[in-house]
Write a structure and sequence with these properties.
By secondary structure, the chain is of the alpha/beta class. Helix content is 38%, strand content 13%. The chain has a single domain, classed as 3-Layer(aba) Sandwich (Rossmann fold), CATH 3.40.50.
Length: 316
């Protein structure tokens, strides 16, 4: 029950949300769009995002999902965890299939929201060509990338977004040699209708950015850092703490881009008032995957973060 003894349904909650600036635990709809059981690993950051994200999207929604942890988590009919219609597609075709579904909805005269929800491998590597095409065509879809920074579903292989120096099953000795792709920057170069970065550790920030994305025509892209305990080498109970530390150290920034203008949002915006941030070493030491990093590499990473935030303070 909500405060005052009212049990809000989705329609009531939508009206309430239109009168409030931000979502809190007091006005978040209690209606659930997934069943209690699913196949996610213990401590899965994606499971947090999925439950809260569906509360923002509502039932008039169709998902397009490539092979990923989300496919595993949802399961397959007739024992799927989700209550939403889902079209499973190939790795490379997510944005293209979502484009076709959106065209079908338009032909039927329906405003049903089409949401492509893929992992970092299916977005930054295998599926980036279809996503780039959809961005160029200004397709009216929402594209969500949950970035757990490796191919977790198939055994923790390195992906394009895996940070430099990270230990994976395909970079097992000294870690990944290459720097990670800045996918939000690549997407921003396409001039999307809306772009936002989010964190699984701040699900209500993700929720409200989805609400905003729903009201905008064109392609909306949300990129979410999503801690993965088995892939990152941490205890299941540390999922939220690790994600928060990534933001508080300034390593992962929360921001939005609308009409070509970038602005920091949520917890990242509040960091502008601080003269110094938490050292990035605190974040790195929470995870086994970074144990191959040398002090020199960590110092370089810290210097890059400091320089980035010095620029933010000058700009914002």
């Amino acid at each position: 029950m909500n405060p005052g003894g009212l049990d809000y349904n989705y329609e009531d909650w939508t009206t309430i949300m239109n009168m409030t600036a931000k979502t809190s635990v007091l006005n978040l709809t209690q209606e659930e769009f997934i069943y209690p059981g699913n196949r996610a690993c213990s401590g899965c950051g994606l499971s947090i995002l999925y439950r809260i994200g569906l509360k923002a999207l509502g039932r008039d929604c169709i998902f397009v999902v490539p092979p990923s942890c989300l496919t595993v988590m949802q399961g397959l009919f007739p024992i799927a965890a989700t209550q939403m219609p889902v079209l499973n597609c190939t790795f490379a075709s997510t944005a293209a299939i979502a484009t076709g579904v959106r065209a079908a909805m338009k032909r039927l005269g329906r405003d049903t929201q089409v949401v492509a929800w893929a992992g970092d491998g299916g977005t930054s590597d295998i599926g980036i060509q279809a996503l780039s095409g959809a961005l160029e065509r200004v397709e009216d879809i929402i594209y969500i990338c949950y970035d757990n920074e490796a191919y977790m579903n198939t055994g923790v292989q390195r992906s394009g977004t895996t940070p430099q120096g990270t230990l994976t099953t395909t970079t097992p000795l000294s870690g990944k040699a290459e720097a990670s792709k800045n996918i939000p920057a690549i997407i921003a170069a396409h001039n999307p209708a809306y772009l936002a970065t989010c964190s699984a550790s701040y699900p209500l920030d993700f929720h409200d950015k989805l609400l905003k994305a729903k009201e905008i025509k064109g392609l909306k892209y949300l990129h979410i850092q999503t801690p993965c305990p088995p892939g990152w080498g941490c205890e299941e109970r540390m999922t939220v703490e690790i994600g928060r530390t990534a933001v508080e150290t300034g390593l992962f920034d929360l921001y939005e881009i609308e009409d070509g203008q970038m602005k920091l949002s949520g917890p990242s915006q509040k960091l502008l008032g601080k003269t110094s941030l938490r050292p990035v070493r605190e974040y790195l030491e929470m995870q086994v995957r970074f144990k191959a990093l040398s002090d020199e590499q960590i110092n370089v990473m810290q210097a890059e973060i400091d320089q980035k935030w010095a620029g933010y303070r000058d700009t914002f």
